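Provenance and format

Records in this collection were gathered into a single text stream. Each protein contributes a sequence line and a token line. The two records reproduced below are adjacent in the stream.
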Amino acid sequence: MAITQAAEFLATWETGLDRAPAGRALLLHGAARPDLGGDLQALLSLPVGQREADLFALRRALFGERMQVRLECSACGADMEFELDAGEFARTLADRGDPLVRVAEDGWEIEFRVPGVADLTAAARDADPRRALLARCVVTAVHDGQPMSADTLPVAVQRRIAEAARAADPGGDVTLNVACPECGEGTRAELDIASFLWTELDVWARDLLLDVHLLATAYGWSEPEILALSPLRRRYYLELCADV
């Protein structure tokens, strides 16, 4: 992590400590998109896949491309460990089409927008999340030339819309399918990059604060002075402390 970023991301970590996972994801997304200037509405309106791509890109910038992932086999319980490429995910998920999608099915012509984070959050609070999501994201619905409301869509048309949404924004649901080296069975699991990145940031921040404590105790330096050191020089001073 660059010297100028250390203090900023330490502050980001501190802010997110008392937030729920959704709040931490939004906080990390804001850090990944400084070009939006902290505009929460702009962040929440972005397609979910865009957020995931942004978070993978942030992970690559902070901690490198290689991601060590551990997963338990759903068939035999074996502990599986493997690597993923954060850079490849960032590039792949960023390659999307038009966020406004059109579907024609059984006399229906539907125009809808790919859901954003705010849409999923609001729909999850509704007693019928699918209905709520359709109500928010369907722009126009026409059946045999007549305008219709989103709640009149047949189940088959709803399924077709869901398929088109996944195709238009594949990053909205990043699912891994890993073959177990022990039993050969496949295990499917969602990759929650926001949670993964927060865990890494939490470990990094606590390690950094320990470094600050040790160097402040040994040399009397302030936190800003210690954070201004490059990671290499900070590690060298810590080694000197250990040799005393």
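Adjacent record:
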Amino acid sequence: MQKDHLFTRRRMLLAGAAAAGAAGTAGAILAAGGEETAGTAAPAGGPQARQALKPSAFRLQPLTGYGPPRAAPRKLKVRKEPILQVSGRGRRMVLTFDDGPNPAYTPHILDTLAKYDVRAMFFVCGECVVDNRELLVRMADEGHVVGNHTWTHPLLTTMNRKEIRSEMERTSDVIEDTYGDRPQWFRAPYGAWNRAAFQLGAELGMEPMAWTVDTTDWEVPGTDTIIDRVEGGAAPGVVVLSHDAGGDRSQTVRAIREWLPYLIDSGYHLTVPSRRPT
């Protein structure tokens, strides 16, 4: 009798997961080089690239020693340019945050998003996830999309294929080990893409996501300037780039408390993209 109960419960859980997965495929994205086109993202300005860290004994150890083996990622077509915009009816925009998670800034951004019931994309660095797993779990639990932003935030165009794969794959592994799912999106640090990054991202089951509006908050230009850049760049399909780590992000935290309700009051629907089936 107990076995029948467990079997029935397991079937219900699997059915729920399948329904959620089907719902996630609704919607579309504007992809450069695909059926729908968009412009090319130029490398972003920013602080000097950090060199990839040498693997330590700790980093080489598996993060979890148990559980089922990882499933092979779904094969995707290799794009030549990153995705820049989202498509769809209405005034839809996507908010993205890079370089975290960071315990000093990420929780405040998550609090503001929760206050207005808005979902966003967080492109995380693996080395930051290791010390802040609870923030990654919170992101996922609150409906945000977690993307891969490499392990140490290096300039990929200066690295060989093996080094790039290590940066990307280790980050996908730590994301999966933390909350159970591998990321479906990837963003190259500094917006510096090359053929290897596109190829390896596709092999690892990730679509490349760039941005349309850069707040340049990494320059710490002032809260008012960040607000003006978001509000001035707002338009249907826009992808906004901000940062929740990598430096002093207190201006970003203050700015989002101002521009987020402004966008909502202006009729924008802040959403996250669904990856198009291939």
